[in-house]
Structures are given as C-alpha cells and as structure tokens.
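Bug #77: duplicate submission created two jobs. Keeping one. Sequence:
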Amino acid sequence: MAKLYFRYGAMNCGKSTALMQVVHNYQERGMTAIIAKPYTDTKGGDKVISRLGIERKVDLVLDHEANVIKAVLDWQESHGRIDCILVDEAQFFKSIQIDQFFEIAVRHNIPVICYGLRTDFSMRGFEGSERLLLIAHSLEELKTICRCGRKAILNGRKVNGKFVFEGEQVVIDGSDQVEYESLCATCYFELRDQEM
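Kept job's structure:
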C-alpha cells in the first residue's frame, strides 16, 4: 500500500526545491511523478517556482471544488501511469481534498507527497495542514533558520516592510508589498510585542 506523506516547514525551508528534486529523481528512473497545486496559490501561475530560481510546470491546478480523485484518474487515463503525486502548497487544499489524496494513496496505490506550511502568520492552522497532521502516514519537518540563527518554526508577515499579526489568512496580490520571514518562537513574540 502506498502512503500519504506530509513534509512541512516554515517559509523558505526549501519545500518547493525538495519537491522538484523528488520529481527529478522519479524522471531519472523513467517513472512518472506529477505535480498538483491549489488554484489559491497564484504565485507562479501554473508553475512551481523555487527561491533558487528553478521552476517546473504543474500538471494539475485544482480549485476548492475539484474532486482530486477524478482529476488524478482523468490525468492518468489521458497520459498514462502515475508513479507518484507531489502536492505543492498543500495547506491551501480543503479537508475533503486531503481525504481524497489519502484515498488515492490507499485505494489506488499511488504515493502522495504533500509539501506545505503548518500555520499562518498568526499561528493559526491551515485547513489542509490540519487534516494532513491528523491522517498522513508520515510527517517530516523541513528545517530552516531564523534571523537569530535558531530553528525557525513560525512565519512572520510583513506588509510594506512592517510586521503584522492580524489580517486575512490568505493574501492575494494587491497594492501592498507582502513578504514573509521564517522566525523562531522567541523572535516572533518579540516582534509581535513591538507592534502592540
């Protein structure tokens, strides 16, 4: 039986780069690994883009209403065998869609490796991540460092260069410059205290 994996980490821990390395490994062995991402992730359009400057076209861009099982089986019918499914920005999927990825692994024997964030900039869980933490067969933390050198586990949001700790969970490109910084818990709370 194949498994559902959740590889999570703070912003800039290399999730997209790791995903593309796995795709490359499958292709190098003559196998087919496809990439799925949520429509919510507008960065890069129909591509996964790494901070290192590498990119790869996504095979399935799925909206919140999409039936993941149907989309995967339709892709397989028109393109051939799938040996692995890699999911970028998994936190943005709905809980039911995570259940469908789980079913693909268990009932269709296709490994599904999801990459994403556990929490948002205000330490709230994402729907997709919360479900993955409950049902994934395997959990793996991808690590990165904070500005102070400690392990980063949280995500700070900066709007026009200033840290913010309230607002919408998902920000679509607008007139403000929105950036994220991975932070340890100590730096996160210090920055939050400065803004209050």
